[in-house]
Amino acid sequence: xxxxxxxxxxxxxxxxxxxxxxxxxxxxFSSYAMGWFRQAPGKEREFVIAISWSGGTIxxxxxxxxxxxxxxxNAKNTVLLQMNSLKPEDTxxxxxxxxxxxxxxxxxxxxxxxxxxxxxxxx
Length: 123
What we know:
four-stranded antiparallel sheet, mainly beta
């Protein structure tokens, strides 16, 4: 099994930045593509951004293009989500997830999930 734990959530003003971390333990971290999803109150969980096991392929939602970046350090079993130019609509619980498939937007292809971390962006 692979265990994931997010950290770094908090409250920021619109236009600000925040960095989320996802620490992995268990199975070999480098064997998995890693993704970030988010879920706002009353809404379905949505894809944000993902990175391949090698770091060579990145997929992202149009809503975060130019604002969010993803990176990973396989030696440290960690994936990062750098969020810049945050907007109130970015407010959600952010989840880290792992998949044995490619870094796609389909949540059902992800096998492991962290418990989530809250990100709140004020107007």
